[in-house]
Amino acid sequence: MQAKRIIPCLDVDDGRVVKGIKFKGIQDAGDPVELARRYNEEGADELTFLDIGASYKSRETLLDVVRKVAAEVFIPLCVGGGIRKVEDMREAMNAGADKVSVCTSALQRPELLSEMAKAYGSQCVVLSIDAKRVDKDAVHPKWTAYSHGGRTDTGLDAIEWAIKAVELGAGEILLNSIDADGTGTGYDLELTKAILDAVPVPVIASGGAGDLDQIAGVLQNPGADAALVASLLHFGKTTIPEIKKYAESKGVCVRW
């Protein structure tokens, strides 16, 4: 049985970790280097850095943060935000990233995924999908993919986009539910299952973690390959060891 991963997510804007609800109401959550150090010591399996302003602002601040963190932690780093071409990916990798995440740039130019995979391998290419449900009352739900940090509805079916992206070279899907983000009401299990059924690559569930049971639930077989956690950790409501211990008690195989 493959071990499931617990991945703290650091949404970084202007050099600080921030968190909001449904991509809005952003508030400060701490220093990224200090948080990264804590999560590394607690036993995080990976760290994800997302420059939430990089789709419309400079990514230089995030790269500086990545350099500082990479010098102190010893777990894989995934960096996203402002990656628009292979040269941007190279800068992130040189700064200490082990893989990069793309969202807006891939929606605007899907062939970027193939270029990145050719340059560094699919295992280094993570497609981030910011998805929002179109009709909550529909018998067969549909989600569309959003760009620019959840600001713009592309109208593109999120499931179809995931399939195409994997064909182009994406080696992993970071699945963000805009509806659930920051609400603490739990992951969008229907969305997660739909993506899991559609693609053969690992899927990271993101958005909505409010308690330990919800985290274990999204990982229980057949579940997501990893769970992204932010607010619960940033604001001291739980720790990574507590998450792993609880998930293990629910039959989830976790890494220690």
Automatic annotation (TrEMBL):
Catalytic residue positions: 11, 130
UniProt name for this protein: Imidazole glycerol phosphate synthase subunit HisF
Gene3D superfamilies referenced in this protein's UniProt entry, alphabetically: Aldolase class I
Family, similarity comment: Belongs to the HisA/HisF family.
Encoding gene per record: hisF
Pathway: Amino-acid biosynthesis; L-histidine biosynthesis; L-histidine from 5-phospho-alpha-D-ribose 1-diphosphate: step 5/9
Protein's job: IGPS catalyzes the conversion of PRFAR and glutamine to IGP, AICAR and glutamate. The HisF subunit catalyzes the cyclization activity that produces IGP and AICAR from PRFAR using the ammonia provided by the HisH subunit.
An annotated GO cellular component: cytoplasm
EC number assigned by the record: 4.3.2.10
Source species taxonomy: Bacteria, Pseudomonadati, Spirochaetota, Spirochaetia, Spirochaetales
GO molecular function, one term: imidazoleglycerol-phosphate synthase activity
